[in-house]
Amino acid sequence: MFRMAKLTDYGIVLLTQFASRGDSAPLTARELAASAKLPLPTVGKLLKQLQHGGLLTSQRGTKGGYALARPAGAITVTDIVEALEGPLALTECQAPGVCEQERFCAVKPNWLVINQTVRDARCRA
Predict the structure, then answer these.
(1) pLDDT digits over 60-111, tens only?
(2) Is the alpha carbon torsion for 108, 109, 112, 117 positive or negative?
(3) Position 8 confidence tier, pLDDT thresholds 50, 70, 90
(4) Distances from the Cα of 97 to the Cα of 80, 114, 119, angstroms
């Protein structure tokens, strides 16, 4: 079974909070933690990772907080997963030199297509 990490699930929940607002006013970690009913330390950690992944921007000061780095419709689930977990792939075929069978694998071309299809999938709200 393919399963995302719990923190990735929480990251998607947090980004949904931004997307559902419709405006670009920054949200604080405290506001996000309260609305998503998640622990503040967890939210803080995720916000930093999402910022580092290029999905959020941060602004300091009394009117500061976090905001989406680009329009919500331009952010895919793959973007979120990769910001929190690293490159998305169902098999090791995406990383050359990792699989011992790579040179002899008859199904590698099929896995490449499947991996790319998963990467290109978009969520519809």
Answers:
(1) 988 889 999 999 888 888 899 899 998 877 777 766 777 888 788 888 888 8
(2) negative
(3) very high
(4) 26, 19, 21
Q: What's the CATH fold of domain 1-87? A: Arc Repressor Mutant, subunit A (1.10.10)
Q: For the whole model, what pTM was predicted?
A: 0.79
Rounded CA separation 112/125 (Å) = 27
Residue among 11, 26, 19 at smallest CA distance from 82: 11
Q: Which of 4, 8, 122 is nearest to 72 (CA)?
A: 122
Domain ranges of the chain: 1-87, 89-125
Residues 6+ apart with CB under 8 A from 93: 99, 102, 105, 108, 111, 112, 115
